[in-house]
């Protein structure tokens, strides 16, 4: 146990010492070892495989904002079901888009309309465990919306975002590894 603690403290010191130097760089994935993400895949809403009706191609993502669930369609009438956080009142939307980009530990620049509502927000944040976009982000069409992780896992299952779909980091990593750029995303509002 002492050796493990020494390794953790040494790594934290090294990572902490590089944080200022990394201000314009992408997040160092080694820091993921020290984030408090849900590693069991259960989150506040457990990820499960369920039966799924519909004529959707495997790999299609269906988001049900009322149910606050995201479904990744699989073969044989099944889907992986994940819990998500959705847009609060006035920020929910529906439609069909494609995943146009995927990023690990994405940086975040709040859009102008969000800064008008929340002038206290930073103008830019590099990726990392404190970043509101979490461990992964999948960008939806040419919109400002994303399916992304969260540094606030307690918000999963709630309507609190500005229109993006939040997931616990373990679930967004799982989804990210399963989908490709170009995948269809159907948002049912």
Give the number of helices.
3
- Class, according to the CATH hierarchy? Mainly Beta
The structure class reads: alpha/beta
Topology-level CATH name = L,D-transpeptidase catalytic domain-like
Strand order of the largest sheet: 1-4-3-2-11-6-7-8-10
Sum up the overall morphology in one term.
Answer: globular
Strand coverage percent:
25-35%
End-to-end gap: 50 Å
Instruction: Tell me, rounded to a whole number, the average pLDDT.
Output: 81
Count of structural domains: 1
CATH level-two architecture: Beta Barrel
Instruction: Give the C-alpha Rg.
Output: 17 Å
Kindly state the number of beta strands.
Answer: 11
Q: Helix amount, in percent?
A: 10-25%
Uncertain spans, ≥5 residues at pLDDT below 50?
1-40
Task: List SSEs in N-to-C order.
Answer: HEEEEEEHEEEEHE
Largest sheet: 9 strands, mixed
CATH superfamily: L,D-transpeptidase catalytic domain-like
């Amino acid at each position: 146990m002492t050796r493990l603690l020494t390794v953790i403290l040494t790594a934290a010191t090294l990572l902490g010492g590089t944080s200022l130097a990394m201000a314009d760089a992408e997040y160092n994935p080694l820091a993921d070892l020290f984030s408090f993400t849900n590693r069991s895949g259960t989150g506040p809403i457990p990820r499960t495989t369920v039966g799924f009706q519909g004529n959707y191609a495997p790999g299609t993502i269906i988001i049900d904002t009322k149910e606050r669930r995201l479904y990744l369609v699989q073969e044989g009438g099944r889907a992986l079901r994940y819990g998500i956080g959705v847009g609060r009142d006035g920020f929910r939307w529906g439609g069909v888009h494609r995943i146009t980009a995927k990023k690990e530990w994405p940086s975040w620049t709040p859009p102008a309309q969000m800064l008008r509502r929340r002038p206290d927000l930073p103008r830019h944040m590099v990726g990392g465990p404190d970043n509101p976009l979490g461990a992964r982000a999948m960008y939806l069409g040419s919109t400002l919306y994303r399916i992304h992780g969260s540094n606030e896992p307690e918000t999963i299952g709630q309507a609190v975002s500005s229109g993006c779909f939040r997931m616990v980091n373990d679930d967004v990593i799982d989804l990210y590894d399963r989908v490709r750029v170009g995948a269809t995303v159907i948002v049912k509002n």
